[in-house]
Amino acid sequence: MREADIHLLLSAPDGLADLLSKFDSAETAGIIESLAGHLDVATQIDAIGFIDQLTVHCADDEGTERTSIRSLSRAVAALVARCMQFVDEEDAEIIIEFVSSAPLIYGFDLLCNVGPAHGLVRGSTAKKLGRAKRHIAYGKAIEHAIEVWRQRAKRVIESGYVMEEGDLFVFLDGLARLGAGATDADALAALGEFCSEVPGGFAHFLERARKC
Question: Which superkingdom is the protein from (predicted)?
């Protein structure tokens, strides 16, 4: 992608979601990383429009192979976090819209990216907190987004939909770590419900555990 095209997308992102849909996940991740690399030198950035377009793309990305989605998810998370630096306080809730609409794995990677600077990811030591970049100045929006993510994760685990949605252990990790009051008990409670109430849940848990 030409540098002029990148700067045009950053300033006028309409159509970005359609553009990204033409590429596979590896190619899309490369485009996302190129866009992120130009944020600091761009003269004009429509951060709200850009995040809206990424939200649309990710929400339509349910069919992506689980083996390839993670690099794309991390690239998107890093770009959304960077874009949030250009979002005014009154628009900070756009992060909640992203977490509400995108597949859970995207929300997990974004919240793990932006949460540590606000002390909202369990296991973030003082040293890690000191290195963490405060991409979003509005901790309340992140707290709300984390609660939305946690409720969604509990539902897909306890309903059994996690067997189609994605990686059980990633979502359990999120329940154990995302949020100021997160504990292992949160993840264990969801896992217990999954294994005891969801048909095939225990067998799925054992299968996933063998692959870890």
Answer: Bacteria
Q: What is the dihedral of CA 164, 168, 172, 174, to 10 degrees?
A: -60
Asked if 199 contacts 185 with a C-beta cutoff of 8 angstroms, the reply is no
**pLDDT value, residue 127:** 46
Q: Of 66, 81, 105, which Cα lies nearest the Cα of 32?
A: 81
CA 11, CA 31: separation in Å to the nearest integer?
16
Per the listing, tokens 């984390």 go with 146
| Upper half-sphere CA count for residue 136 (Cβ side, 13 Å) | 33
Q: Is it the case that residue 123 has pLDDT exceeding 90?
A: no
Residue entry with tokens 């793990």:
112
* Digit-coded pLDDT (tens) for 35-60: 998 888 888 889 999 999 999 999 88
User: For residues 30, 33, 39 and 43, what is the CA-based torsion angle, rounded to 10 degrees?
Assistant: 0
Model confidence over 10-36: pLDDT tens digits?
Answer: 889 999 999 999 999 889 999 999 999
Cα four-point dihedral sign 120, 124, 126, 132: negative
Structure tokens at 172: 């359990």
- Cα(113)–Cα(133) distance, integer angstroms: 9
Nearest of 177, 202, 176 to residue 188 by alpha carbon:
176
Provide the pLDDT confidence category of residue 175 given band limits of 50, 70 and 90: very high
